[in-house]
Amino acid sequence: MPQLGESVTEGTIGHWLKKVGDHVEKYEPLCEVATDKVNAEVPSPFGGTLTALLAEEGQTLKVGEPICELAEKGLGVAGAEAVGPVVAAPATPAPSAAPAIPAPSAAPAIPAPSAAPAVPALAQPAAAGPRGRVRTSPYVRRLAHEAGLDLALVPGTGADGRVTRGDFERFQAAGGAGGSTAPQASAPAAAAPPAAAPVAGDTFMALTPMRRTIAEHMVRSKRESPHATAWFEVDMSRVVALRKSLRAEFEAREGVPLTYLPFVTKAAVEALREFPQINASWGGDKIILHGAIHVGLAVAVPDGLVVPVLRNADGYSIAGLARAANDLISRARAGRLTLADLEGGTFTVNNPGSYGSVFSTPLINQPQAAILSMESIVKRPVVVEGDAIAVRSMMFLSFSFDHRILDGATANQYLASVKRRLEAVGPETQVY
């Protein structure tokens, strides 16, 4: 498993692009790897033949652990033992492929998947490794822990009784049960309720590496940060009018759309200079106040969410923010972000309003102190000066913050500053 960034300690095999026996050229991608930062392809260090896969799709490994074996070009598969693994450590048999999980049948009881072969007669009880541990992969141990099954009860069909992913899933589908793999003493005080048992008509959707990473990060955020959220309503009528007057000329000149995102981002970063304690993160025994303002922009992609970072955002004009944001968003949706694009954020701006949301409660992007969400701009009748009623373009700002770092007074003062700056926009406002 390659080192895909200074702070990255592990990666998950997302998809193998090659199979055993395939010839690969130097630098040709072998597989896709997902980390908590970015998805990346792992290139072959030289030309040769792929002789073994040592990690399954979906399996998470530490940096430096073996993932496959290659026989160097010119030696052929038979020469693999003489050369030894280059991308990997000593060989272990390739894990058996996981059977596809079919949709449940119409019968009330959920039968074992029809595609799964019966456990071979020669299958032996799971062999114990050092200190009594069952021989299997970290990924299978995690599946067993989540399912509350004892791996010692699963017949292993791998080498020396090794329990493969296929063994575990066949055992689970057949209704296997056992004690929890976790000691009772380490169980949480308030256990989560058991998941609803599948019934006729249910289907299964496998977790992608990105979805698993998002799940882990969101659980971590809610567990570690005491969240509090404040909402401010902003009259965006003047911003709407300015954007309307500039939009066509701007897009013709710049080749990128002029959205509301750069206007809100500009107001947000100016307010961060006024309230530097917002541009902070939790450091365990201290609060880290960041000198630079690196704004993460939450971007929805086909299989999840990524947060590319706009560095030194306070140095951009509105036009500059529009260009830079469009570049990051376009590359995110095309899958062309680099690890550097996703590291170092100090504050996050989210834009659920582009999907029609009018009110939300965003989760903090760890370890940052806060996240700002801009909601949909909606025309509503409001009371204006002189007790008159007028139609205005209104928008809610949703601001979630870490109550360890910030209190409500500071959070509301920050939101008031952002609101004041947006409502002060006018024809004289410079976008360049």
Radius of gyration: 27 Å
Number of helices: 8
The appropriate CATH architecture of the largest domain is 2-Layer Sandwich
Mean pLDDT value: 82
What fraction of residues sit in β-strands?
15-25%
Instruction: Please report the distance between the alpha carbons of the first and last residues.
Output: 45 Å
> For the report, how would you describe the main beta sheet?
7 strands, mixed
Low-confidence stretches: 76-124, 177-187
CATH topology of the largest domain: Chloramphenicol Acetyltransferase
CATH class of the largest domain: Alpha Beta
How would the global form be characterised? elongated
Structural class: alpha+beta
Write the H/E string, N to C.
Answer: EEEEEEEHEHEHHEHHEEEEEEHEEEEH
The percent of residues in helical segments reads 10-25%
The figure for the number of domains is 3
**Can you tell me the CATH superfamily of the largest domain?**
Chloramphenicol acetyltransferase-like domain
How many β strands by DSSP? 20
